[in-house]
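Propose amino acids for all 240 sites.
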C-alpha cells in the first residue's frame, strides 16, 4: 500500500512571518493564523499543504531541500522576484552560472528557493509550486518512488524525479551533490497511510527499503520520525 504525501514542513523561528511570505510566493491561502503549527492550503491541484512549525534553532548551512516556483512569463518572473524582495527575500549566490535563467533567492529565514524561467519544459503544466527539489542520490529517488507509489519520470545522469500518477501537483527531484548533513533539515516531508492503512506496517515496509527510525527529540508523539537512505528526516503520520 502506498503512502500519501500530506505536507512539506518548514522549521521556522517566526512561523507566522514565514507562512505569510510563502503564502504570497505560492499564491496559496494561510489556513489558521492562531494555530501553533501554521498551514498553507493549496489553491491549485498540488494536493498537499505546507506547514510551519516553531523551532528555536537558527538555520545552518545550505538546505538540502528547496522549492522551485514556476513563472508564466518573463514579466511574471521579474514581478515575482521584485515582490518577494519587498517581502523580505534576498538574492543569493549558491554557485549558479551567469547564464542560468532561473533566479536564486533566500526567504526571510535564509531558506533557498528558485524562481524558474517561464519556458522551462520540465515544469510545464505545473502549478506555482513546480518542484520540491532535493540534493540527493538516485537511491533516494528510488526509495521515495516506492514509498509514495509515484512513478519515476526522470532517471538519468545521477538525477531522478517522481510525480503523482495522475500528473498533478509538483515534481519531487533529487540530484547531486549530496553534501554532509551538519544539522537537522529545515524542510522535511510528512507522509501518512490512508484511513484504512496501518502506520506500523508502513514503517516496517519503509525500513525494509532503506529507511531508519531516528530520534530528534520528538518525545511521546503519535507520528514516527525516520530518515531516508540519504539521511533526510521525514515523518510517518497516523492514517488519514
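Proposal:
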Amino acid at each position: 500500500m502506498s503512502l500519501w504525501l500530506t505536507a512539506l514542513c518548514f522549521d521556522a523561528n517566526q512561523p507566522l512571518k514565514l507562512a505569510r511570505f510563502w503564502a504570497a510566493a505560492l499564491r496559496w491561502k494561510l489556513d489558521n493564523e492562531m494555530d501553533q503549527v501554521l498551514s498553507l492550503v493549496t489553491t491549485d491541484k498540488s494536493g498537499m499543504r505546507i506547514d510551519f512549525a516553531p523551532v528555536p534553532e537558527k538555520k545552518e548551512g545550505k538546505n538540502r531541500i528547496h522549492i522551485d516556483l514556476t513563472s508564466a512569463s518573463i514579466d511574471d518572473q521579474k514581478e515575482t522576484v521584485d515582490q518577494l524582495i519587498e517581502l523580505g527575500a534576498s538574492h543569493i549566490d549558491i554557485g549558479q552560472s551567469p547564464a542560468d535563467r532561473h533566479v536564486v533567492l533566500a526567504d526571510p529565514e535564509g531558506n533557498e528557493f528558485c524562481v524558474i524561467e517561464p519556458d522551462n519544459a520540465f515544469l510545464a503544466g505545473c502549478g506555482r509550486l513546480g518542484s520540491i527539489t532535493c540534493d540527493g542520490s538516485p537511491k533516494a529517488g528510488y526509495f521515495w518512488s516506492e514509498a509514495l507509489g509515484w512513478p519515476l519520470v526522470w532517471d538519468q545522469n545521477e538525477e531522478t524525479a517522481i510525480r503523482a500518477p495522475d500528473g498533478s501537483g509538483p515534481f519531487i527531484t533529487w540530484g547531486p551533490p549530496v553534501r554532509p548533513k551538519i544539522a537537522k533539515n529545515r524542510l522535511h516531508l510528512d507522509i501518512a497511510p490512508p484511513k484504512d492503512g496501518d502506520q506500523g506496517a508502513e514503517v516496517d515496509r519503509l525500513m525494509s527499503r532503506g529507511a531508519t527510525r531516528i530520534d530528534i527529540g520528538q518525545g511521546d508523539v503519535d507520528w514516527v520520525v525516520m530518515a531516508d537512505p540519504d539521511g533526510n528526516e521525514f515523518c510517518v503520520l497516523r492514517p488519514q
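The first strand starts at residue 4 and ends at 12. DSSP finds four helices and 16 strands in the chain.
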